[in-house]
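User: Some background: our group keeps a shared notebook of sequences we're curious about, and every so often someone picks one and asks for a predicted structure to add to the entry. Today it's my turn. The entry only has the sequence so far, pasted here. Could you supply the structure so I can complete it?
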Amino acid sequence: MEKGREAMIKTALIAVDGFECFDYGPTHPLRMYRLKLTWALMEAYRLTGLPNMTVIKPRPATEKEVLSFHRPEYVEALKRANSGLWFDEAYRYGLGGGDCPIFKGLYEGSLLGCGGSVVVAEKLISGAAHITFNIAGGLHHAMPNYASGFCYLNDPVVAINKLLEHFSKVAYVDIDAHHGDGVQFAYYRSNRVLTISIHESPLHLFPGRSGFIEELGEDEGYGYSVNLPLLPYAGDDVFLKAFDEVVIPLLHAYNPDVLVTQLGVDTFQTDPLTHMELTTNAFCHAIRAFKALGKPWLALGGGGYDVANVCRGWTLAWAIMNGVELPDEVPQEWNEQASAYNVRLSKLRDGSSYPSSKSALQDVEKVISYLKETLPYTS
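Assistant: Of course. Here's the predicted structure to add to the notebook entry:
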């Protein structure tokens, strides 16, 4: 398994202990046991004790760190919601609905996930690691004053704010099926953070109100907000075309000091909430391309509602980050453990994908042409 390991680089992985309190409830699509099972699959493949890596226990984010993006009154509302009890004005802050329920430990769990992203940001700042991964992070929808889309605290923004204390330019790339609206909002008027989001068209998927190609940023941030909305059922061909022709060239042109990526795997085939129909082939292509940039890299988790896909997607990503080639055969001990949650994997990777439709290819061509003609720094 480790024969093909590349020259060793220092990596850091956030442990998932302590997230048991962060439970959205039995009917919610975000199943937090996905973190436990992903860790177990990494462990079964012997990816949690590599000589070049460090396992880090997350710490809760401090209130000062959280307030670098979120408003004080919203943080106070989260504290009240932490008891699990309803309170007046909860809806004002996006709390208590189906997407963002109120439950005991809500604020504590959010602080822990957010703090995990800050901790790995600190590892990049100190030079203790070159690639870091917080699979419990990537909650990109939370806004300064309200919860949204299963997200209470926006850990990508809080972590990026930490990075901006030490680096001049940060690039954020979001490959989740949903638009990274909270992160775009945070930096819409800044040229210090380039935000790029490839996602299913907001005409067909949450959040609906953002993620269109015309959203390019404002003031100093004009041209530093980039969106690549794809038609439903786009498939690998369309994703790879957008990624290779826009994302990678933009990253080279911007030349950031550090790269932050949100690696949601709700883009995969069989995800129950989305329709992008990607395979592990496209996903792994993106991970290899991110690594090839050679930048300090903070990777975050994100969406993914087919738990088996979450486990294999982030395990494959962590293996690539560490230069380890994994066999397709899934360790039997993991399937035995996962069966308690009605989760099973027959193989780690997908086979070849179906060709993308002509309409989806034509649509992405229009998106790419528009961005190439409009962005001020791509000529």
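Suggested note for the entry: The chain is about 35% helix and 10% strand. The first helix runs from residue 33 to 44.
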